[in-house]
Amino acid sequence: DQQVKQNSPSLSVQEGRISILNCDYTNSMFDYFLWYKKYPAEGPTFLISISSIKDKNEDGRFTVFLNKSAKHLSLHIVPSQPGDSAVYFCAASDPWGAQKLVFGQGTRLTINP
Amino acid sequence: NAGVTQTPKFQVLKTGQSMTLQCAQDMNHEYMSWYRQDPGMGLRLIHYSVGAGITDQGEVPNGYNVSRSTTEDFPLRLLSAAPSQTSVYFCASGRRGQALNTGELFFGEGSRLTVL
Asked: Which A residues 58-97 touch B at CB under 8 Å?
């Protein structure tokens, strides 16, 4: 049973436009959500997170939105740059075990010049 | 600043062989963990540790063993390798407060294991 789902395996966006990556979850006890970015042959790197008590968090070109009623979060990248081409993983943790991150399947983002 | 270092980067095993994947971090992080990444399944937690001498199971612990004798090292042992353990393995570490509260982790570059 996949508690965190990224239903789009891939996404292609033109350079300079907005990239929107989506993530759905089923466990209402999750209280922290994170996005990790992964380049080929490297480990994932932390990108941005959001607490369940917020609905938006911004960090430069990256914004994460959380809709708790819909159990949905999204990552917006504006403007998209070629270096953003990577696999993006959504992850979630509950109050009793942030060490037990639950990851989605990942979305491969390709930014086209 | 090395961060999280995993060795080996690549390994081929025959079914039934045993081996140890090494993980070391130089950031004095209390929390360490092992994940495996399989196509279409994201990363799944195998084992984790919140400090030296303390380990616990994650989502997919069967066939793996861990120990944490020092803060720096967290080796993952495959007891009797099976083809189902063919995967990419990632070690991660984090500060106890951050790792336990927000899940922010630092990952190694991964170890690709093939079991024939």
From this structure: 89, 91-93
